[in-house]
Design goal:
By secondary structure, the protein is mostly helical. Helices cover about 55% and strands about 0% of the residues. Helix 1 runs antiparallel to helix 2.
């Protein structure tokens, strides 16, 4: 037990915090992919289809990156608040192995699996899915 009431050791939390801060810094670097989002009008219909597909894929990558950056910020906030490593749905400790694999995890595996089966996206409104 640590001074913040967390079930994780202070060294484990500090290590994960450093990993999350590194991810946050990396995710903040301007992306060259933003240039790929611009709309181009091409004369050749096949080139236009390829351009549209490339743009759609770039938008999806940017969206995934923004979601990950949001999850990393939330994890760092939970560390500051002493709530890191606690499932936001069932309030049980999230196993250290899960946090080693996914340091921004907000849910334990059983809760994550249940929400995925229900088709609920992880938005923070877990009570509505219960």
């Amino acid at each position: 037990m640590t001074t913040n009431g967390n079930h994780l050791g202070d060294l484990d939390t500090a290590r994960r915090k450093a990993i999350l801060e590194g991810m946050q810094a990396e995710l903040a670097i301007p992306l060259s992919e933003r240039d790929e989002v611009r709309v181009e009008y091409l004369a050749d219909p096949l080139d236009q289809v390829k351009s549209n597909t490339d743009r759609d894929m770039a938008v999806q990558r940017l969206d995934q990156r923004a979601k990950l950056a949001h999850e990393v910020r939330l994890a760092l906030a939970r560390i500051r608040e002493g709530e890191y490593g606690i499932c936001e749905r069932c309030e049980r400790p999230i196993p250290a192995r899960r946090l080693d694999a996914i340091p921004w995890a907000r849910l334990c595996v059983p809760c994550q699996s249940e929400l995925e089966l229900l088709g609920v996206e992880e938005t923070g409104d877990f009570e509505s899915a219960a």
